Structures are given as C-alpha cells and as structure tokens.
Amino acid sequence: MRGGTSKGAYFLAEDLPAEPAARDELLLRIMGSPDTRQIDGLGGAHPLTSKVGVVSRSGDPRADVDYLFLQVAVDRPEVSDRQNCGNILAGIGPFAVERGLVPAGKERTSVRIRMTNTGDLATATFPTPGGRVDYTGGAAISGVPGTAAPVTIEFPPGAHPLLPTGNVLDVIDGVAVTCVDNGMPTVLVAASDLDVTGYEQPKDLEDDLVLAGRLRELRLVAGRLMGLGDVSDTTVPKVTLLAPPRDGGAVTTRTFIPVRCHTSIGVLGAAGVAAGLRIEGGVGARLARLPDRGDRVRIEHPTGFLDIESSLGTGPDGLPTARRTAVVRTARKIFDGTVFPRAAETAPTPAPSRGGQR
Ligand code: NQM
What we know:
The chain is α+β, with helices and mostly antiparallel strands. It folds into two domains: 2-135 and 333-346, Diaminopimelate Epimerase, Chain A, domain 1 (Roll), CATH 3.10.310; 170-326, Diaminopimelate Epimerase, Chain A, domain 1. It is 16% helix and 30% strand. The protein has five helices and 16 strands. The protein has helices spanning 20-31, 86-98, 202-207, 209-225, 267-277; strands at residues 2-3, 6-12, 51-57, 65-72, 79-80, 108-115, 120-127, 150-155, 170-172, 175-181, 185-190, 238-243, 251-256, 296-301, 304-314, 320-332. Strands 1-2-3-4-6-7-8-16 form an eight-stranded mixed beta barrel. A hairpin with a 2-residue loop joins strand 9 (170-172) and strand 10. (1E)-4-oxobut-1-ene-1,2,4-tricarboxylic acid binds next to helix 2 and helix 5.
C-alpha cells in the first residue's frame, strides 16, 4: 500500500514469524535487502519505499488494532523498530478493515490505532461507503500525483515530553538546536547555521559531504541529550533544517532521515516541526511565519507542503506540551496477494579447489 508519501508492505502479525529475529530475516528477503536496488524484492530502493506495517487486534482497551512499524534498511541487512511512521500509519485503518480486524461503518470508519513502537495512539477516519474501503476521492497531498480518499488522523496529547532534553534550546558545537518529540524525535536547526539556504534540492544536500559530516556529529550529540543513547546506528533522531517560508507556508524544511534527505517530510516529523515553531525561544519561532489564528500550520518541503493542525499546552514543569495534532493524508491499496521471498541463505558452498577441477 501507499501510505501518505511512503510505500510499504502491510502484513497481519499472524502471517509473520512471532520471533523478531526470524521475522526480520524474512522481511529482508521479502524487501530485497541488502541491495541498493532491492532488485530481488518489493522494496523501492529508498528508505521511504522500504517500509513494513505489521497489524494485529489490540489488547489495549484504548485501541482497535496494534501497528508495529519496521524500517527495512536498503543497503544493509537491518530492520529497525526504533521509530514510528506516520505515513505508513495512513494505510493501517484501511488495511485493518480489508483484513476484517475492524468492521466497516456504512459511510465512514474510525480505527483507533496503538503504535506499538512508542505506545502512542492515533485515530484514523476514512470513507467506507456501503461497508467497503473506498480509496478514490478528491484529497490531494504534495508528493503524490492525483487525488485519493482523505484519511484524517488525529493524535491525542503526547504521552512523552515534547522537549526531551528539558530545554527549549541546546547548543551543540556552537549551533543552536531545539530537540522535539511529537511522535518522532527530531532535531530542529536553522539551515543558515549549517551554511546552507534550506531551499536546496535533496540530492544536492545529500551530495554535500561537509554538511553530511556536520549533521552526523550534531545528531550523535543530540541523540545523547535526548536520552536516546548512541544513535550512530539508529534512524532516530531525524534532523530538520529550517528556513523562512517561500511559498506562503509557515516555514521551509529539509529533513534528514537521518542520512538520506526526505523528498517531502514525515507526518510525525512535521508534527514535531509544527509544535516546535510555536515554542517561544526555540530555533523555529524566529524563522517561522505563523498564521494569526487557528491551529493549522503549512510546512513547506522539497515537493510542496504538508498542512498540519497543532496546538500546545503547558506541563506541570512549565514546559510546553503537545495538546492536539491532526493531519489529512491519503492511502491506496496497490496490490493484495502472495509475496515470494528469495530463498534463505544456506551455508556458503565452498569453492572447488583448483586440484579438483578437471
Ligand atoms: O515522520 C520518514 C515518512 C517518514 C516517517 C522518516 C514518517 C513520520 O515520511 O511520521 O512518516 O522520517 O523516516 O514515511
């Protein structure tokens, strides 16, 4: 399914091995990793198209289904459960209805989802006229051609601190950053502080080796400050470069996930940016042009914009907290069927010795 601006394979948990190592080994073979082209599997040769959603009925009374997100690395034999994905999330409700985990309503269906990677909750609402998921409709999202049925996703107040370092501003190697977590740990930094404009194309930013080095160092320190430990081999935190808006939005973004530059922006990443812009004294507040009223914020990204509703409250410690976040995405079923993974590796066959060749 396509979920928002990502694409992935969606599974019922019961169809995969329960043991994580066996599950991950199978998923690598299904997606075609490790291989930069993922030529022998379903993956699309980019982190945004090498994703997996695993869905089951939830035992949590607050949720209908559990959703485990797995990021399958493209060029390394790695599967990570260390992050959520708000784009793949857009397809979880429709998938749950398709697989009979949740009954479809007559006109629309709301599915309460627990994102097991972090324990966060979300409710997705989408059209089900006549009791079937209808993927067609008039909603357009930047980064996806055409239109499709809207999937409205509401996030309740965050269960974890919005400012994981406990500070509105941290300074790393002389660069001011605001570290936020509104579902996705993200380091916000002004693009100009890293000697780029923030309006470059993702490919040009990826090719900038000086920038890559600075981002790597910044992220390692930020990860520790955010309580994430050694993040050298993990996909979080992400780093988002901010610059003043150019197309009528609130801010322009370039997001590193964490090495490749996102062609748009993640949903939960955008939730962090939107909240971050409202934090007084934070890196985003001085660059952003926020609307005079209302919760809706337009986040510009390399292929357009993402509109997201975000409001903040204040926690008992006086620090800002995420009160409400809501977003409209679209999703589409692309294929439903049986995948044939490449065969499991067996012990390598020893090369015949020279003497043995006739
Ligand atoms: O932030 C990419 C994506 C994502 C994550 C990433 C996402 C989110 O766009 O909620 O959706 O940050 O690795 O799929």
